[in-house]
Amino acid sequence: MDGHEGHAALVLTGGGARAAYQVGVLNAIRELRGKRTGNPFPILCGTSAGAINAAALAVHAGDFGRAVRHIDRIWRGLHVHDVYRVDPAALLGSGVRWGSALFSGWMVRQTPRALLDNAPLQDLLGRVLDLAAIEPAIKRGDLHAVSVTASGYSTGESLAFFQGAIDILPWRRAQRLGVRSELRIEHLMASSALPFVFPAVRIHREFFGDGSMRQLAPVSPAIHLGADRILVIGAGRTADEGRVRVERYPSPAQIAGHALSSIFLDTLEVDLESLARINDTVGRLDSTQRKAAGIPFRPIETLVIQPSQRLDTIAGRHAASLPALLRTVLRGLGTLRREGSTLLSYLLFEPSYTRALIELGYHDAMARAPELRRFLRLD
């Protein structure tokens, strides 16, 4: 694809409620584009909650401004009960099932599915996303491809379910596959099924969970789908604080938050470092030299926007917005302590928190407006 602009891709990572940050960045892009029509990202790739945002953009691929306004409206009004059940029957029932499995499971062989029931999220997605609109958008040329990544619990493989132009071929790499599929709500539910927190989803012959698990190369689907430029909107954290002496044993929430951060954040940084090294090497050769040497790679322009503030710190400031019973349950796990707020940052689907992340994303993106304008070819 040397010699012309090619396709720009948008990669949206996972992170539960943290994905509200992506909406703020999208708002800034919408503002920078002004009254320009069309879709600036013909390739959309999402994982976990980022898969839901990517699908929402794909549904309205012909009108980027409308798509962003639609996503913004949903996230600003989101409550935990829109994503998972927080009524007494659901929370107490979950506690009973897990307790029974721990203390008498050897006798009754009872296996709990998850800590939380996210059936409300499935209902919400069914109401607000018309996934049948994706294929017409592809045929009109408003969209080249969209992919949703999920992780297979049986095979351990990372599957990118994609829907796109007919010339895109499936791919297979070590523990990574690209599979052509007509995207449905179950793909989004599988991709966003946080391990232990939300139940796995069966697609065809296998159960799938959150796409960030075992996703060794988060940027890879965009490249396989034909991207020459990639904008990555993460939901990560800034640098960790220095090592400090601690006396108290880590709470379950602190351990769970550490595990989720390893799943959602670490692989992206490694993949971007690898891509930077390849770009540096390939960039030393022109297209003729690469062809003569049999080098199949091409330079990939990348731009990464990540939160400038720690999202767990922001979550801690908004913990009081949770429903009282859920707050009590999470307090027992240590989630409301400062060191346990990382887990909280993934589960806090409440307007005060999501709006704070939207504002942060907007300001972070506008602070890098010159880079975004260059990437979007607005000049």
Largest sheet: 10 strands, mixed
- Beta content: 5-15%
Fraction of helical residues: 40-55%
Give the oligomer, counting copies of the same chain as homo and different chains as hetero: single chain
Q: Spell the H/E element sequence.
A: EHEHHHHHHEEEEHEEHEHHEHHHHH
For the record, give the distance between the C-alpha atoms at the N and C termini, rounded to a whole number.
22 Å
Q: Give unreliable regions as ranges.
A: none
Net shape: globular
Number of discrete helical segments: 16
In angstroms, what is the radius of gyration? 21 Å
Structural class: alpha/beta
Total beta-strand segments: 10
Mean pLDDT: 84
Structural features:
379 residues, alpha/beta, ten-stranded mixed β-sheet, 16 helices, 10 strands, 46% helix
Brief overview, please?
With 379 residues, this protein is an alpha/beta fold.
Q: Would you give an account of this structure?
A:
There is one protein chain. 46% of the residues lie in helices and 14% in strands. Strands 1, 2, 3, 4, 5, 6, 7, 8, 9 and 10 form a ten-stranded mixed beta sheet that branches. By secondary structure, it is an alpha/beta fold. The protein is globular. A hairpin with a 2-residue loop joins strand 5 and strand 6.
Provide the fold topology.
Layout: E1 7-12, H1 20-33, E2 43-47, H2 49-59, H3 64-76, H4 80-83, H5 88-108, H6 119-128, H7 134-140, E3 145-152, E4 158-164, E5 171-173, E6 176-180, H8 185-191, E7 201-203, E8 206-210, H9 220-224, E9 227-233, H10 252-282, H11 287-293, E10 301-305, H12 311-317, H13 324-332, H14 341-347, H15 351-366, H16 369-375
Helix pairs in contact: 1-3, 1-15, 2-3, 10-14, 12-14
